[in-house]
Design goal:
The protein has about 400 residues and is an alpha/beta fold. It folds into two domains: about 260 residues, Type I PLP-dependent aspartate aminotransferase-like (Major domain) (Aspartate Aminotransferase, domain 2); about 110 residues, Aspartate Aminotransferase, domain 1 (Alpha-Beta Complex), CATH 3.90.1150.10. The protein has 14 helices and 16 strands. An eight-stranded mixed sheet has the order 2-9-8-7-6-3-5-4, sandwiched between helices. The protein has a four-stranded antiparallel sheet with strand order 12-13-16-15, covered by helices on one side. Strands 1-14 form a two-stranded parallel ribbon. Helix 2 packs antiparallel against helix 10. The model has no long low-confidence stretch (mean pLDDT about 95). Bound molecules: 4'-deoxy-4'-aminopyridoxal-5'-phosphate (PMP). 4'-deoxy-4'-aminopyridoxal-5'-phosphate binds next to helix 4. The site of 4'-deoxy-4'-aminopyridoxal-5'-phosphate has 13 residues, from helix 4. Belongs to the class-V pyridoxal-phosphate-dependent aminotransferase family. Csd subfamily. Pfam families: Aminotran_5.
Length: about 400
Protein backbone atom coordinates (compact mmCIF):
# COMPACT_ATOMS: atom_id res chain seq x y z
CA UNK A 1 0.00 0.00 0.00
CA UNK A 2 2.86 2.44 0.78
CA UNK A 3 5.33 1.13 -1.82
CA UNK A 4 4.14 3.82 -4.24
CA UNK A 5 5.79 6.43 -2.00
CA UNK A 6 9.22 4.81 -2.41
CA UNK A 7 10.96 5.30 -5.81
CA UNK A 8 13.16 2.24 -5.14
CA UNK A 9 10.17 -0.01 -5.72
CA UNK A 10 9.39 1.60 -9.07
CA UNK A 11 13.00 1.20 -10.17
CA UNK A 12 13.79 -2.23 -8.85
CA UNK A 13 12.31 -5.71 -9.03
CA UNK A 14 14.12 -6.71 -5.86
CA UNK A 15 11.99 -8.13 -3.08
CA UNK A 16 13.56 -6.04 -0.36
CA UNK A 17 13.58 -7.82 3.00
CA UNK A 18 16.74 -6.39 4.53
CA UNK A 19 15.15 -3.48 6.38
CA UNK A 20 17.07 -4.29 9.55
CA UNK A 21 20.23 -3.27 7.66
CA UNK A 22 18.76 -0.13 6.14
CA UNK A 23 15.33 1.02 5.02
CA UNK A 24 14.26 2.44 1.67
CA UNK A 25 13.62 6.19 1.49
CA UNK A 26 10.32 7.84 0.57
CA UNK A 27 10.25 10.32 -2.31
CA UNK A 28 9.85 13.29 0.04
CA UNK A 29 13.15 12.38 1.71
CA UNK A 30 14.96 11.96 -1.61
CA UNK A 31 13.49 15.22 -2.98
CA UNK A 32 14.64 17.08 0.12
CA UNK A 33 18.26 16.11 -0.67
CA UNK A 34 18.05 17.43 -4.23
CA UNK A 35 16.23 20.56 -3.07
CA UNK A 36 18.89 21.38 -0.47
CA UNK A 37 21.82 20.85 -2.84
CA UNK A 38 20.16 22.48 -5.84
CA UNK A 39 18.42 25.46 -4.28
CA UNK A 40 19.76 26.52 -0.86
CA UNK A 41 23.06 24.72 -0.22
CA UNK A 42 24.86 26.63 2.55
CA UNK A 43 26.40 25.87 5.92
CA UNK A 44 24.32 26.06 9.12
CA UNK A 45 24.77 28.07 12.34
CA UNK A 46 27.52 30.29 10.89
CA UNK A 47 26.80 32.69 8.07
CA UNK A 48 23.94 35.14 8.14
CA UNK A 49 22.62 35.30 4.58
CA UNK A 50 19.34 34.01 3.21
CA UNK A 51 20.25 30.47 2.22
CA UNK A 52 22.43 29.95 5.30
CA UNK A 53 19.52 30.98 7.48
CA UNK A 54 17.14 28.71 5.59
CA UNK A 55 19.56 25.76 5.93
CA UNK A 56 19.81 26.42 9.68
CA UNK A 57 16.03 26.67 10.02
CA UNK A 58 15.41 23.41 8.13
CA UNK A 59 18.14 21.67 10.15
CA UNK A 60 16.72 22.89 13.46
CA UNK A 61 13.21 21.94 12.35
CA UNK A 62 14.33 18.30 12.43
CA UNK A 63 15.50 18.70 16.03
CA UNK A 64 12.04 19.90 17.05
CA UNK A 65 10.34 17.15 15.03
CA UNK A 66 12.55 14.47 16.60
CA UNK A 67 12.03 15.90 20.09
CA UNK A 68 8.27 15.64 19.58
CA UNK A 69 8.53 12.27 17.86
CA UNK A 70 10.18 10.59 20.86
CA UNK A 71 8.55 12.89 23.42
CA UNK A 72 11.77 14.39 24.77
CA UNK A 73 11.13 17.40 26.98
CA UNK A 74 13.61 19.91 25.47
CA UNK A 75 15.21 20.53 22.08
CA UNK A 76 18.62 20.59 23.81
CA UNK A 77 18.19 16.91 24.66
CA UNK A 78 18.49 15.99 20.95
CA UNK A 79 22.07 15.81 19.65
CA UNK A 80 22.69 14.86 16.04
CA UNK A 81 25.27 12.21 15.22
CA UNK A 82 26.16 9.97 12.27
CA UNK A 83 23.96 7.19 13.61
CA UNK A 84 23.64 4.76 16.48
CA UNK A 85 27.27 3.68 16.27
CA UNK A 86 28.48 7.24 16.80
CA UNK A 87 25.85 7.90 19.49
CA UNK A 88 26.96 4.87 21.52
CA UNK A 89 30.67 5.61 21.03
CA UNK A 90 30.12 9.24 22.05
CA UNK A 91 28.48 8.40 25.36
CA UNK A 92 30.78 5.43 26.02
CA UNK A 93 33.91 7.52 25.55
CA UNK A 94 32.69 10.57 27.45
CA UNK A 95 29.97 10.21 30.07
CA UNK A 96 30.28 6.46 30.71
CA UNK A 97 34.06 6.13 30.47
CA UNK A 98 34.79 6.24 34.20
CA UNK A 99 31.98 4.02 35.43
CA UNK A 100 33.38 1.06 37.30
CA UNK A 101 30.91 -1.33 35.69
CA UNK A 102 29.03 -1.38 32.41
CA UNK A 103 26.18 -3.87 32.05
CA UNK A 104 25.00 -5.00 28.60
CA UNK A 105 22.62 -7.74 27.40
CA UNK A 106 23.46 -10.98 25.58
CA UNK A 107 21.85 -9.70 22.38
CA UNK A 108 23.92 -6.61 21.67
CA UNK A 109 25.07 -5.46 18.26
CA UNK A 110 28.86 -5.09 18.04
CA UNK A 111 28.48 -1.31 18.29
CA UNK A 112 27.35 -1.75 21.89
CA UNK A 113 30.18 -4.17 22.67
CA UNK A 114 33.35 -2.96 20.97
CA UNK A 115 33.31 0.60 22.43
CA UNK A 116 33.51 -1.00 25.90
CA UNK A 117 36.37 -3.29 24.83
CA UNK A 118 38.25 -0.23 23.54
CA UNK A 119 38.26 1.02 27.15
CA UNK A 120 40.04 -2.15 28.25
CA UNK A 121 36.91 -3.70 29.72
CA UNK A 122 36.21 -7.41 29.41
CA UNK A 123 33.82 -9.85 31.03
CA UNK A 124 34.15 -9.58 34.83
CA UNK A 125 36.61 -6.72 34.40
CA UNK A 126 34.38 -3.65 34.11
CA UNK A 127 31.90 -5.34 31.79
CA UNK A 128 29.00 -7.60 32.77
CA UNK A 129 26.56 -9.37 30.47
CA UNK A 130 22.98 -10.19 31.47
CA UNK A 131 22.24 -13.75 30.50
CA UNK A 132 19.27 -14.89 28.47
CA UNK A 133 17.39 -18.19 28.43
CA UNK A 134 17.03 -20.66 25.55
CA UNK A 135 14.31 -18.48 24.07
CA UNK A 136 16.66 -15.44 24.19
CA UNK A 137 14.56 -13.79 26.92
CA UNK A 138 16.40 -11.21 29.03
CA UNK A 139 17.03 -12.65 32.51
CA UNK A 140 15.66 -9.99 34.85
CA UNK A 141 16.77 -11.89 37.96
CA UNK A 142 20.35 -12.04 36.73
CA UNK A 143 20.14 -8.35 35.86
CA UNK A 144 19.06 -7.54 39.42
CA UNK A 145 21.93 -9.65 40.83
CA UNK A 146 24.38 -7.71 38.65
CA UNK A 147 22.90 -4.37 39.73
CA UNK A 148 23.10 -5.40 43.37
CA UNK A 149 26.71 -6.52 43.05
CA UNK A 150 27.68 -3.42 41.04
CA UNK A 151 25.90 -0.39 42.47
CA UNK A 152 25.75 2.78 40.34
CA UNK A 153 26.60 0.91 37.14
CA UNK A 154 26.13 2.15 33.59
CA UNK A 155 23.60 -0.02 31.76
CA UNK A 156 23.64 -0.08 27.95
CA UNK A 157 21.02 -2.30 26.35
CA UNK A 158 19.46 -2.74 22.95
CA UNK A 159 15.73 -2.07 22.63
CA UNK A 160 15.25 -4.64 19.86
CA UNK A 161 17.77 -7.28 18.83
CA UNK A 162 18.74 -6.74 15.20
CA UNK A 163 19.71 -10.40 14.90
CA UNK A 164 16.58 -12.04 16.33
CA UNK A 165 13.93 -9.30 16.62
CA UNK A 166 13.59 -9.82 20.37
CA UNK A 167 12.16 -6.77 22.17
CA UNK A 168 13.58 -5.93 25.58
CA UNK A 169 11.05 -4.60 28.09
CA UNK A 170 12.92 -1.33 28.54
CA UNK A 171 10.42 0.26 30.90
CA UNK A 172 10.88 -2.55 33.44
CA UNK A 173 14.64 -2.74 32.86
CA UNK A 174 15.07 1.05 33.28
CA UNK A 175 12.98 1.09 36.47
CA UNK A 176 15.06 -1.67 38.00
CA UNK A 177 18.31 -0.02 36.89
CA UNK A 178 17.30 3.27 38.53
CA UNK A 179 16.32 1.50 41.76
CA UNK A 180 19.96 0.46 42.08
CA UNK A 181 21.33 3.90 41.19
CA UNK A 182 22.34 2.88 37.67
CA UNK A 183 22.11 5.09 34.58
CA UNK A 184 20.70 3.55 31.42
CA UNK A 185 21.36 4.02 27.70
CA UNK A 186 19.27 2.32 25.02
CA UNK A 187 20.37 1.30 21.54
CA UNK A 188 17.21 2.21 19.63
CA UNK A 189 18.49 1.31 16.15
CA UNK A 190 15.70 -1.18 15.50
CA UNK A 191 12.80 0.50 17.31
CA UNK A 192 11.56 3.60 15.52
CA UNK A 193 10.79 1.90 12.21
CA UNK A 194 8.25 -0.28 13.97
CA UNK A 195 6.74 1.31 17.06
CA UNK A 196 6.32 4.52 19.01
CA UNK A 197 9.11 5.40 21.43
CA UNK A 198 8.38 7.73 24.32
CA UNK A 199 11.62 8.41 26.18
CA UNK A 200 9.85 9.98 29.15
CA UNK A 201 7.49 7.07 29.53
CA UNK A 202 10.36 4.58 29.23
CA UNK A 203 12.30 6.82 31.64
CA UNK A 204 15.67 6.18 30.01
CA UNK A 205 18.68 8.46 30.40
CA UNK A 206 20.18 8.12 26.90
CA UNK A 207 18.51 6.80 23.75
CA UNK A 208 20.46 6.23 20.50
CA UNK A 209 18.66 6.69 17.18
CA UNK A 210 19.55 5.68 13.63
CA UNK A 211 18.19 7.77 10.76
CA UNK A 212 18.89 5.35 7.94
CA UNK A 213 16.98 2.54 9.68
CA UNK A 214 14.06 4.95 10.00
CA UNK A 215 13.58 5.86 6.30
CA UNK A 216 16.05 8.78 6.42
CA UNK A 217 19.36 9.14 4.52
CA UNK A 218 22.48 7.32 5.68
CA UNK A 219 25.03 9.06 7.90
CA UNK A 220 22.55 10.68 10.26
CA UNK A 221 21.22 9.78 13.67
CA UNK A 222 20.91 11.22 17.15
CA UNK A 223 21.39 10.66 20.82
CA UNK A 224 18.73 11.73 23.29
CA UNK A 225 20.31 12.86 26.57
CA UNK A 226 17.99 13.39 29.55
CA UNK A 227 18.22 17.05 30.56
CA UNK A 228 19.57 16.30 34.02
CA UNK A 229 22.70 14.70 32.53
CA UNK A 230 23.42 17.30 29.84
CA UNK A 231 25.84 19.28 32.01
CA UNK A 232 27.78 16.13 32.93
CA UNK A 233 28.28 14.90 29.37
CA UNK A 234 31.66 15.99 28.06
CA UNK A 235 32.05 16.77 24.37
CA UNK A 236 34.15 14.00 22.82
CA UNK A 237 35.14 16.11 19.86
CA UNK A 238 35.20 19.89 19.58
CA UNK A 239 35.99 22.49 16.94
CA UNK A 240 33.99 24.71 14.63
CA UNK A 241 30.51 25.69 15.84
CA UNK A 242 30.98 24.25 19.34
CA UNK A 243 32.64 27.24 21.02
CA UNK A 244 31.71 30.44 22.78
CA UNK A 245 35.20 31.89 22.84
CA UNK A 246 38.75 30.73 22.09
CA UNK A 247 42.19 32.18 22.68
CA UNK A 248 45.55 30.39 22.53
CA UNK A 249 45.24 29.17 26.11
CA UNK A 250 41.62 28.40 26.55
CA UNK A 251 38.26 27.72 24.96
CA UNK A 252 34.74 27.86 26.36
CA UNK A 253 32.04 25.72 24.82
CA UNK A 254 28.48 26.56 23.95
CA UNK A 255 25.57 24.84 25.68
CA UNK A 256 23.96 21.64 24.40
CA UNK A 257 23.29 20.64 21.68
CA UNK A 258 25.80 22.84 19.84
CA UNK A 259 28.81 21.98 21.99
CA UNK A 260 28.36 18.35 20.92
CA UNK A 261 27.90 18.93 17.19
CA UNK A 262 31.45 19.72 16.11
CA UNK A 263 32.27 20.64 12.52
CA UNK A 264 29.97 20.88 9.56
CA UNK A 265 27.11 18.49 10.10
CA UNK A 266 25.40 16.17 7.63
CA UNK A 267 23.04 19.04 6.80
CA UNK A 268 21.17 17.36 3.95
CA UNK A 269 20.94 14.17 6.00
CA UNK A 270 19.44 15.93 9.02
CA UNK A 271 16.95 17.78 6.79
CA UNK A 272 16.05 14.45 5.16
CA UNK A 273 15.64 12.90 8.61
CA UNK A 274 13.00 15.55 9.34
CA UNK A 275 11.16 14.60 6.12
CA UNK A 276 11.29 10.92 7.16
CA UNK A 277 9.72 11.80 10.53
CA UNK A 278 7.01 13.85 8.80
CA UNK A 279 6.36 10.90 6.53
CA UNK A 280 6.09 8.54 9.51
CA UNK A 281 3.65 10.95 11.15
CA UNK A 282 1.56 10.73 7.97
CA UNK A 283 1.74 6.90 7.82
CA UNK A 284 1.05 6.57 11.57
CA UNK A 285 2.33 3.85 13.88
CA UNK A 286 -1.11 2.27 14.21
CA UNK A 287 -0.99 1.48 10.47
CA UNK A 288 2.62 0.31 10.65
CA UNK A 289 1.79 -2.03 13.50
CA UNK A 290 -1.27 -3.53 11.87
CA UNK A 291 0.43 -4.02 8.47
CA UNK A 292 3.48 -5.65 10.04
CA UNK A 293 1.31 -7.87 12.24
CA UNK A 294 -0.50 -9.24 9.19
CA UNK A 295 2.64 -9.65 7.09
CA UNK A 296 4.39 -11.48 9.94
CA UNK A 297 1.38 -13.75 10.53
CA UNK A 298 1.51 -14.86 6.90
CA UNK A 299 5.32 -15.07 6.90
CA UNK A 300 5.35 -17.19 10.08
CA UNK A 301 2.72 -19.58 8.71
CA UNK A 302 4.61 -20.02 5.44
CA UNK A 303 8.07 -20.35 7.00
CA UNK A 304 6.78 -23.01 9.41
CA UNK A 305 5.88 -25.22 6.41
CA UNK A 306 9.45 -25.29 5.09
CA UNK A 307 11.28 -28.56 5.80
CA UNK A 308 14.14 -28.51 8.31
CA UNK A 309 13.66 -24.91 9.38
CA UNK A 310 15.25 -24.06 12.74
CA UNK A 311 14.28 -21.01 14.80
CA UNK A 312 16.11 -19.78 17.89
CA UNK A 313 13.27 -17.99 19.66
CA UNK A 314 9.50 -17.91 19.52
CA UNK A 315 7.75 -14.97 17.91
CA UNK A 316 6.33 -13.57 21.14
CA UNK A 317 7.89 -10.17 22.00
CA UNK A 318 9.52 -10.09 18.60
CA UNK A 319 9.43 -7.34 16.01
CA UNK A 320 10.95 -6.45 12.66
CA UNK A 321 12.65 -9.71 11.74
CA UNK A 322 12.70 -13.49 11.74
CA UNK A 323 16.01 -15.32 11.97
CA UNK A 324 16.43 -18.98 11.08
CA UNK A 325 18.51 -21.73 9.48
CA UNK A 326 17.78 -24.96 7.65
CA UNK A 327 19.15 -28.23 9.00
CA UNK A 328 22.26 -29.34 7.12
CA UNK A 329 22.36 -26.23 4.93
CA UNK A 330 24.85 -23.36 5.06
CA UNK A 331 22.98 -20.06 5.40
CA UNK A 332 25.35 -18.26 3.00
CA UNK A 333 24.32 -20.65 0.20
CA UNK A 334 20.68 -19.72 0.67
CA UNK A 335 21.60 -16.02 0.52
CA UNK A 336 23.56 -16.46 -2.73
CA UNK A 337 20.82 -18.49 -4.41
CA UNK A 338 17.86 -16.32 -3.48
CA UNK A 339 19.77 -13.20 -4.49
CA UNK A 340 19.81 -14.69 -8.02
CA UNK A 341 16.00 -14.80 -7.74
CA UNK A 342 15.93 -11.10 -6.76
CA UNK A 343 15.16 -11.62 -3.10
CA UNK A 344 17.29 -9.58 -0.69
CA UNK A 345 17.73 -10.84 2.85
CA UNK A 346 20.77 -10.78 5.09
CA UNK A 347 22.69 -13.92 5.89
CA UNK A 348 25.48 -14.00 8.45
CA UNK A 349 26.14 -13.01 12.04
CA UNK A 350 24.36 -9.63 11.76
CA UNK A 351 27.13 -7.93 13.78
CA UNK A 352 26.11 -10.00 16.79
CA UNK A 353 28.82 -12.66 16.96
CA UNK A 354 28.71 -13.25 20.74
CA UNK A 355 25.09 -14.47 20.70
CA UNK A 356 25.75 -16.56 17.57
CA UNK A 357 28.69 -18.20 19.39
CA UNK A 358 26.49 -18.83 22.41
CA UNK A 359 23.99 -20.58 20.14
CA UNK A 360 26.78 -22.57 18.50
CA UNK A 361 26.11 -21.19 15.02
CA UNK A 362 27.99 -18.96 12.60
CA UNK A 363 24.93 -17.00 11.60
CA UNK A 364 21.37 -17.09 10.34
CA UNK A 365 19.13 -16.11 7.46
CA UNK A 366 17.39 -12.91 8.58
CA UNK A 367 14.20 -11.68 6.92
CA UNK A 368 13.54 -8.13 8.10
CA UNK A 369 10.32 -6.38 7.24
CA UNK A 370 9.11 -2.78 7.01
CA UNK A 371 5.56 -1.51 6.65
CA UNK A 372 5.85 -1.28 2.84
CA UNK A 373 6.36 -5.04 2.54
CA UNK A 374 3.31 -7.10 1.62
CA UNK A 375 1.98 -10.61 1.04
CA UNK A 376 3.41 -10.65 -2.48
CA UNK A 377 6.90 -10.14 -1.05
CA UNK A 378 6.34 -13.04 1.33
CA UNK A 379 5.10 -15.26 -1.52
CA UNK A 380 8.20 -14.46 -3.59
CA UNK A 381 10.49 -15.07 -0.63
CA UNK A 382 8.92 -18.45 0.12
CA UNK A 383 9.03 -19.48 -3.53
CA UNK A 384 12.73 -18.52 -3.69
CA UNK A 385 13.51 -20.36 -0.44
CA UNK A 386 11.76 -23.50 -1.73
CA UNK A 387 13.73 -23.40 -4.98
CA UNK A 388 17.02 -22.81 -3.16
CA UNK A 389 16.30 -25.67 -0.75
CA UNK A 390 15.53 -28.08 -3.54
CA UNK A 391 18.73 -27.08 -5.39
CA UNK A 392 20.85 -27.52 -2.27
CA UNK A 393 19.33 -30.87 -1.35
CA UNK A 394 19.95 -32.41 -4.80
N1 LIG B 1 22.64 -1.35 16.93
C1 LIG B 1 21.79 -2.15 16.29
C2 LIG B 1 20.86 -3.02 17.10
C3 LIG B 1 21.75 -2.17 14.91
O1 LIG B 1 20.89 -2.96 14.26
C4 LIG B 1 22.64 -1.33 14.19
C5 LIG B 1 22.69 -1.36 12.67
N2 LIG B 1 22.72 -2.64 12.13
C6 LIG B 1 23.48 -0.49 14.89
C7 LIG B 1 23.46 -0.52 16.26
C8 LIG B 1 24.36 0.49 14.18
O2 LIG B 1 23.55 1.55 13.71
P1 LIG B 1 24.05 2.65 12.70
O3 LIG B 1 24.11 2.00 11.36
O4 LIG B 1 23.02 3.74 12.79
O5 LIG B 1 25.38 3.13 13.16
Amino acid sequence: MFKKDFPYFQNSKTVYLDNGATTQKPKSVIDSQVEYYETYCANTHRSNFGHANKATQEFEKTRVLLKEFINASKNEEIIFTKGVTESLNFIASSFAKDFKTVIISSLEHHSNITPWHMQGRSLGNGLEVVSCNDNLDFDLEHFEELLKANPNAFVSITHVSNAFGKIHDIKTIAKLAHEYGAIIMIDGAQSLAHFKVDVQDLDVDFFAISGHKTFAPTGVGAIYVKEKYLKDVKAYQTGGATIQEVDYNHSTLLDSPYKFEAGTQNIAGVIGFGKALEYLNYVKYENIESIEKNVFKFLDEELAKLPGIVFYNDTKDCIGSRSFNFEGIVHDDIGILIDKMNVAVRVGHHCAQPIMKKLGIRGTIRVSVAFYNDYVDVDKLIEALKKALSMLKD
